[in-house]
Amino acid sequence: MVTKRINFLSFSAFSLCVALALTPGAVADSAKDLLAAGRIDDAIGTLQARLNTKSDDAQAYNLLCRAYFTLDDWDHGIAACEKAVSLDPNTGVYHLWLARIYGEKADSVNFLSAAGMAGKIRKEFERAVACDPDSAEARTDLAEFYLEAPRIVGGGKDKARAQIGPLAKLNPAMAHWVSGRIAEKNKETATAEREYRAAIDASHGGARAWLDLALFYRHVARFDDMVTALQHVASAPVDYPEALTDGANTLLRTNRDYPLAMQLVRRYLSSTPVETSPVFKAHYLLGQLLEKQGDKEAAAQEYRAALALAHEFKRAQEALDRVSR
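RESULT FIELD:
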């Protein structure tokens, strides 16, 4: 325990020196790089040091929220995201991340609490689009909210459908994805499959569209087709790096083709990782796959690799304790 405390103090001092030495833009760039590299402990330390010296930095609060988001720490993340929005209410991406973390929090609480949060989630997604109408990401997330939320809290397929036209100009593949999701909701399976395949064509065979087709096959219990689609993800152009880890996680959850799942994760780790699929979670996922195949020693190495980047990632610590017994 003493060693850990000394290391933490040393790291905090280092982060403070870095934050003081860098300009605000450089601090943000540094934190973004740390988030993309999955170095969550370092990112949080850098951002907290920055906010200790400049408490009105909206971008730093937004990045801190995103760091907590990767740790599934919804409460700390919400506080940071709300602060970013209060400091700069006209930046769409700040509203987008607040909506996302509200949504994750809603998924972790009881039904009544979640229903009470739905209006806040909708408001933030709509505000994200209003601030940045050319954001395909914000429009896609808003359409998904409309599809999943009951009409009483502002959901509705008609509202989701209204996002297709603008999306078609910004990202045709995602416009087809929304059309496919609407068809699924209407139980129009053949139409949904056509839309997901149209998304593949529109994206020139990109990994994201192949993943979406695989997820559709999972929903309709066509598991052999799901695996085939994920084989395409393994070799497709990586237009969406998260497709590799999401595909591996899909195989893990359906108890299918662990070797393919490991291939997907390792391809991700050997590529350029992104913030929305942090490296520490990729190591954790690989550890789960290795553990499923009985290789506890190798799994433990992956869990340790995850904790080296994010020491408060509880799931990795629990997994390491389990395989170390």
